[in-house]
Amino acid sequence: MPTVVFNQKGGVGKSTITCNLAAISASQGVRTLVIDLDPQGNSSHYLLGQAPSADQPTAASFFEQTLSFSFKGVSPTDYVVNTPFDHLDLMASSPDLTELVVKLESRQKIYKLREALQQLGEVYQHIYIDTAPALNFYTRAALIGASGCLIPFDCDSFSRQALYTLLENVQEIQADHNPHLSVKGIVVNQFQPRANLPQRMVAELIAEGLPVLQPYLPSSVRIRESHEQSLPMIHLDPHHKITQAMVALHANIHD
Fold first, then answer.
1. DSSP, residue by residue, 67-79
2. What span, in angstroms and rounded, lies between the C-alpha atoms of 88 and 32?
3. In tens digits, what is the pLDDT along the chain, a chain of 255 residues?
4. In what order do the strands lie in the sheet with 148-153?
5. Residue ranges per domain, the chain?
6. pLDDT (tens digit, 9 = 90+) per residue, 33-43?
7. What DSSP character marks residue 251?
8. Which of 32, 18, 93 is nearest to 63 (CA)?
């Protein structure tokens, strides 16, 4: 079941949440795939420890191939690479994604990812898709092909303003392209329980009937260490409070 992790506001922890939820799935023996559609490639670097080499397939390779007349018969798994973690694979990002957009839009290739996800779903039980902080071609393609959307939220007034626009955009794609798409929930990230603003803001979202997920993810410098060492928290420090919060969040999402 493909899940898109998306917010049009940057810096809310999309890549962190994507990679850590995927690593938890994989650690439980579930065959898992991360698709990194953000040209910045933070998820790819997090899981590989480096940028993909020039001869490695990437998401850009996949989309470029969709422009070819010889695309039929090519398996999307050909564009997937192994990570150092058991049961966890990656379709890596590439800066070339940016250059391909005009060609993909002009050739109306917006549904090619959905077709690929249907095939990948026969191989992987969980698929997580990281997106750029923009409703661009790749984000739309991901939402058209996915069954669910997770929205990271960092308890900030700008993030709240972006949230309502995001929900409207998801509803529009659901109505026009993908009736199976649903918002799985809002992931509260970098939550500070002793501060008044985060508590009040989350309480107001809940009062509005928005699907705020439990538990909230605390702020921790350990996450930065996780990034630096290219080790998701379940591998770096499985007993840390943020790891346990992510494990509980993962269970709620997949319950």
1. TSTT-TT--GGGG
2. 5
3. 799 999 988 889 999 999 999 999 999 999 999 999 999 999 999 999 987 777 899 999 999 999 987 777 789 999 999 999 999 999 999 999 999 999 999 999 999 999 999 999 999 999 999 999 999 999 999 999 999 999 999 988 888 888 999 999 999 999 999 999 999 999 999 998 888 999 999 999 999 999 999 999 999 999 999 999 999 999 999 999 999 999 999 999 998
4. 81-82, 88-91, 32-36, 126-130, 2-5, 148-153, 182-188
5. 2-253
6. 999 999 999 99
7. H
8. 93
Angle value at C-alpha 142, between 90 and 110, nearest 5 degrees: 115
**DSSP structural state of residue 87:** T
Considering the domain 2-253, what is its CATH architecture?
3-Layer(aba) Sandwich (3.40)
Could you give the percent of the chain with pLDDT greater than 70? 100
CA max distance for the chain: 58
Q: Which two tokens stand for residue 201?
A: 């803001």
Q: Which two tokens stand for residue 92?
A: 């890596």
Question: Which residue type occupies 106?
Answer: S
The Cα–Cα gap between 152 and 135 comes to 15
Which CB contacts under 8 angstroms, 24+ apart, belong to 193-196?
193/218
**This model's pTM is above 0.85:** yes
Report CA torsion sign: 62, 250, 42, 193.
Answer: positive
Q: How far apart, in whole angstroms, are the C-alpha atoms of residue 41 and residue 170?
A: 23
Written as one letter, the residue type at 225 is E
Phi, psi (deg, nearest 5) at residue 222: -60, -30
